[in-house]
Design brief:
Length: 120
């Protein structure tokens, strides 16, 4: 199993970024997928989960209304559109395959992460 994130970088407050996660080594459309993040000096924080067919998405309160998770099962790719970014969103962002679709703190696999820094 491989999960490879991309799209991170430095962005000003109020800006936008789109993260991608390319999955391989498993049947992507059979699994819910999540985004999690880790801010400097803090633990892992669940951000969002999308069901395996993309019909439903769930978000942490801290990002609701600003972040949008989507997936393209034909491309085995997960996305995170991040708008209205704040300094508090600065973190390493990981895509992850949760152990169960409803899990928010247990993951079978996680990528290597991509750094998102929000600063002026």
């Amino acid at each position: 199993v491989q999960l490879v994130e991309s799209g991170g970088g430095l962005v000003q407050p109020g800006g936008s970024l789109r993260l991608s996660c390319k999955a391989s080594g498993f049947t992507f459309d059979l699994y819910a997928m999540s985004w999690v993040r880790q801010a400097p000096g803090k633990g892992l924080e669940w951000v969002s989960t999308i069901t395996r067919n993309g019909d439903y998405t769930y978000y942490a309160e801290s990002v609701k209304g600003r972040f949008t998770t989507s997936r393209d099962n034909a491309k085995n790719t997960l996305y995170l559109q991040m708008d209205s970014l704040k300094s508090g969103d600065t973190a390493v962002y990981y895509c992850a395959r949760p152990s169960k679709p409803w899990s928010r703190d247990e993951y079978d696999y996680r990528g290597q992460g991509t750094q998102v820094t929000v600063a002026s």
